[in-house]
Amino acid sequence: MSKVFGWMLVALVAFDFSFLVAGQIRAQLIPASNRLAQNQALVASVQGLEQVNSNRHAQIATLRTEINQLETRAAVRSQATQSLTAQTDRLSEEAGLTKLRGPGVVVSLDNGHPLAGETTRTGYQIDYVDLQDIVNLLFAGGADAIAVNGRRISPASYFGGVTGAIEVDQGPPLIGPYSVAAVGDRDQMASLLGQPSSLGDLKGRQRLFGLKLSWAGQPDIELNPFDGSLQPQYATPAG
Questions:
Q1: What residues contact 220, with CB distance under 8 A and at least 6 apart?
Q2: Which DSSP symbol is given to 197?
Q3: Using CA atoms, how far apart are residues 130 and 61, in angstroms rounded to an integer?
Q4: Rounded distance, CA 51 to CA 17, Å?
Q5: What's the CA gap between 165 and 176, in Å, rounded?
Q6: Segment (H or E) for 213
Q7: CA angle (158, 161, 163) in 5-degree steps
Q8: Nearest to 109 by CA among 176, 173, 36, 52
Q9: End-to-end CA distance of the chain, in Å?
Q10: Number of C-alpha atoms within 13 angstroms, CB side, residue 36?
Q11: 208 in Cβ contact with 106 (< 8 Å)
């Protein structure tokens, strides 16, 4: 048993000695100059990576600045676009080119009756001046849009015709009864219509000839766009 233990001890000492010798041999196989070169190469590699990383950070910062500038310019353009869109919508509404819906007032009027024995006076009939006065009064009272017998009024609209056949923008003649619908501040328009000083001539003829004149607020009125297809009509000589 002691011999076996002795041989094992000899084997262990021999193994440790051989491991030490092998380590010394491996250390001797890598020259000091090569280790220095390797260390220098590693240091240079690390420094290169640090420089690349620094460059990447600088590029990211530059890109972020450019993105912020682009977003700022885009926001300015967006605000300008929104402003132009709002102006276009407002001008389109004022020109009567868009459908408009909302609360408002409807004015109804129609011819009255001639006085007994009168054959020359036509004051009992609604004429284009009466409609024009009502439209102007409603716009003054806060109307956003107006239509006469369903025909949208634009800033360039004009009234004409003879008594009993009223024309708006050279369209087909309108005959009574007449309906003037206005979308806007209905309380203010109704208040203005009710003032004794408003539409004095029309109200005087109402009392004299029994003209039909009334108005009422409406919660929901829809006005179609101006009919731009209407073409001017001109008188032509009889053939």
A1: 101, 102, 103
A2: T
A3: 71
A4: 47
A5: 8
A6: strand 212-223
A7: 125
A8: 176
A9: 152
A10: 3
A11: no
Strand order in the sheet with 151-152: 151-152, 143-148, 178-184, 100-110, 212-223
pLDDT of residue 232: 45
Token digits of residue 173? 């003649």
Place of tokens 């009889």: 238
Place of tokens 């290169």: 48
> What is the bridge-based pairing of β-strands 151-152 and 159-162?
unpaired
Cα R_g (the chain), whole angstroms: 48
What's the pLDDT tens digit per position in 44-100?
666 666 676 677 777 777 887 888 888 888 777 778 777 777 776 666 666 667 888
Q: What is the pLDDT of residue 37?
A: 66
Q: How far, in Å, CA of 94 to CA of 88, rounded?
A: 10
pLDDT of 104 higher than 70? yes
Picking from 225, 133, 223, 140, the residue whose alpha carbon sits closest to that of residue 185 is 140
Burial label, 95 (beta-carbon count in 10 A; 0-12, 13-18, 19+):
middle
Q: Cα–chain-centroid distance for residue 234?
A: 40
pTM value is 0.61
DSSP SS3 for 225: coil
